[in-house]
Amino acid sequence: MGWVFLIPVHNALTIDVEDWYHVCCGDAEPVVPAGKRRVRQNIERILAMLAEFGVKATFFMLGSVAEEEPLLVPMIVAAGHEVSSHGYSHTLVPLLGPKKFRDEIRRTAEIIGTQAGCKPVGFRAPQWSLGPETPWALDILHEEGCLYDSSYNPLPFIGDRRGARTPFSIATSAGSIFELPPMVTPSPICNLPTGGGWGFRFFSLSMISRTVKKLNDAGMPAVLYLHPREMEAFGPRLSLSPLKSFAAYGTRSDAEGRLRHLLQNFRFRTMRQLVATWQSA
């Protein structure tokens, strides 16, 4: 099932709140001293930019980061933004399995609930690792109180390349859950990852803007995503193979300039607000 928004259409800016070393490449994550963490300073930069444009966003928070930086969630909530779940450990969903996945969802919800005053109602899996091959995960999300997910990325290799490019509803064993996939740009070869990550910095700003406008003209929202590390062009990076390094960092120019352009030229609201629009339709 899909929905068409009445004009004017609002889009969603989402931030995956993780630190610079949270990169899914099949390798063990390094143990990083507290002095080497950089997530807070980059979140502060993002919050300042959002305040400048009067935009509210959704922050998908890692439970481990919320534990290590207990001032982050209250800071985000105080600025009027939504905090949702990114899981606890940044482990891919299939590697967790049903029991550990539920444990992570509950643990992160408890941390965010304590810090924010309310539990999260949305989820995004690390590296888009939730999809048709893990149907049990959506059952668990629904049972744990989630209204929506944003993990079905319609890309080859890391998602479902034939998947829907616009929001839809998925039936679970206990009811339905809203799915809000990230923005991609169709091409003759495959869908291109223009909605965030390395693709957001690699592909032209005109291509990204045209894709947002085309979705909005069709009455649909664009879901964009950003990692805090993308706010600094010369921040630290892990030592990876050339292919993994490109997948993780792309050209590694910072995303701030083009993000400013989009915030100035398009409307945005939180994911929960978008879902509330569908629920009331």
How would you sum up this structure, described in words?
- The protein is an alpha/beta fold and 281 residues long.
- It has a single domain (12-279), classed as TIM Barrel.
- It has helices spanning 39-53, 63-68, 72-78, 93-116, 135-143, 197-202, 205-217, 242-249, 256-265, 271-279; strands at residues 12-17, 58-61, 82-85, 122-123, 148-149, 168-172, 175-179, 223-226.
- Strands 3-2-1-8 form a four-stranded parallel β-sheet. The chain has a four-stranded mixed β-sheet with strand order 4-5-7-6, with helices on both faces.
- Strand 1, helix 1 and strand 2 form a beta-alpha-beta unit.
- Helix 4 (93-116) packs parallel to helix 5 (135-143).
- The longest helix is centred in the middle third of the chain and has 24 residues, at 93-116.
- The protein starts with 11 loop residues before the first strand and ends with a helix.
- The mean pLDDT is 88.
Question: Which strand order spans the largest sheet, edge to edge or round the barrel?
Answer: 3-2-1-8
Distance between the termini: 13 Å
How many helical elements? 10
Query: Which class of secondary structure composition applies to the elements?
Result: alpha/beta
CATH homologous superfamily designation:
Glycoside hydrolase/deacetylase
Order of helices and strands: EHEHHEHEHEEEHHEHHH
Summarize the structure.
The protein is of the alpha/beta class. The chain has helices at residues 39-53, 63-68, 72-78, 93-116, 135-143, 197-202, 205-217, 242-249, 256-265, 271-279, and strands spanning 12-17, 58-61, 82-85, 122-123, 148-149, 168-172, 175-179, 223-226.
